[in-house]
């Protein structure tokens, strides 16, 4: 069956390719970008949050809507609403997101000329947060592998009994599922740190992932509160979430700033050695260091407040594509071959 997500008054400015292919998250499982059709394929949750269905998202030329092909039927009206909500989150289809893009492009001529300003994200906050953890202290290839292994794990721990049965019957060990939810990770006593490390090779990140899941289970983080926050422009509420995330062991400023970018708060730049390299090479800040990075990014990007992170990210993507070609043209099999993973958001 097919669903349509109206783009509204901004349909003439929406570019599916640019809305997806602007951050390393779009390359991470279970996302699959198809260059030949400029479409995105992945599983999405249904209303009961336990079952998933594969969908393909595309933007028919000159049409004021996104087309979502649901490769499963039938589904309920509640399921349809949840699918549309997830697609809207990934591609930032909302009045708040459109307002942010418009205001940012008014400040940033290059973003305006190239139609940039939407940063791709996941269907859920939890997936964004876990993937932000996967970006740290490793190669880009390993980040891709860890995400893939978590999606291979998901059918084994699915709360949907039919999905688990199907997995057991399958003769293929490479059946990619959805990205695990926090409920699935906590539902089984045997899914602990050692199990995640063995099954997904996530190393020390296992403890961080389970701690994050536990915060949702205990109500310290609430999905509905975060969803409301994503549609607000209250810096105090965003700062409260940032400080709460910082209290999670292993969630440093880089991870937390990356997560805040995903929720739509752009005043904090995820700064690391790649940021230092960029400022040295592009902005001539030869003395930039860990000690001066805060001052340097404020000096360069402060004029784009409250969209400093968007300005920084637009520069990174433009620099990367000038050197290595358009991200949207890459085949999935070649993602791991990219020689400059930091351009995609990774932190080694």
From TrEMBL:
Which GO terms of type biological process are on file?
base-excision repair, AP site formation
Task: Choose one Gene Ontology CC annotation of this protein and give it.
Answer: nucleus
Q: Which InterPro entries match?
A: DNA_glycosylase (IPR011257), Oxidative_DNA_repair_enzyme (IPR052054)
* GO function terms (MF aspect): 8-oxo-7,8-dihydroguanine DNA N-glycosylase activity
Protein known as: HhH-GPD domain-containing protein
Residues making up the signal peptide according to the UniProt record: none
């Amino acid at each position: 069956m097919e669903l349509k997500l109206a783009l509204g008054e901004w349909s003439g400015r929406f570019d599916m390719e640019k809305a997806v292919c602007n951050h390393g998250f779009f390359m991470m499982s279970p996302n699959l970008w198809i260059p030949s059709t400029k479409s995105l394929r992945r599983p999405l949750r249904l209303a009961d949050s336990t079952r998933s269905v594969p969908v393909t998202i595309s933007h028919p030329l000159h049409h004021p809507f996104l087309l979502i092909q649901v490769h499963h039927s039938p589904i309920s009206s509640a399921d349809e609403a949840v699918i549309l909500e997830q697609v809207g989150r990934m591609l930032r289809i909302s009045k708040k997101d459109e307002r942010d893009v418009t205001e940012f492009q008014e400040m940033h001529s290059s973003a305006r000329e190239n139609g940039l300003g939407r940063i791709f994200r996941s269907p859920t906050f939890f997936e964004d947060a876990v993937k932000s953890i996967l970006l740290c202290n490793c190669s880009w290839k390993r980040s891709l592998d860890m995400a893939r292994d978590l999606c291979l794990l998901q059918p084994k721990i699915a709360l949907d009994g039919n999905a688990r049965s199907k997995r057991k019957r399958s003769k293929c060990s490479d059946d990619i599922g959805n990205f695990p939810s926090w409920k699935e990770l906590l539902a089984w006593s045997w899914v602990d740190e050692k199990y995640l490390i063995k099954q997904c090779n996530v190393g020390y990140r296992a403890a961080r992932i389970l701690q994050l899941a536990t915060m949702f289970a205990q109500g310290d983080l609430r999905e509905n509160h975060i969803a409301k926050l994503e549609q607000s422009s209250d810096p105090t509420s965003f700062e409260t979430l940032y400080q709460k995330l910082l209290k999670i062991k292993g969630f440093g400023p880089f991870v937390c700033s990356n997560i805040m970018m995903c929720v739509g708060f752009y005043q904090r730049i995820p700064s690391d050695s790649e940021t230092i390299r960029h400022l040295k090479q592009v902005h001539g800040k030869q003395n930039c260091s860990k000690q001066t990075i805060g001052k340097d990014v404020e000096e360069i990007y402060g004029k784009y407040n409250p969209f400093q992170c968007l300005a920084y990210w637009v520069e990174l993507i433009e620099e990367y594509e000038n050197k290595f070609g358009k991200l949207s043209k890459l085949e999935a099999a070649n993602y791991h071959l990219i020689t400059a993973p930091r351009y995609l958001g990774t932190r080694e």
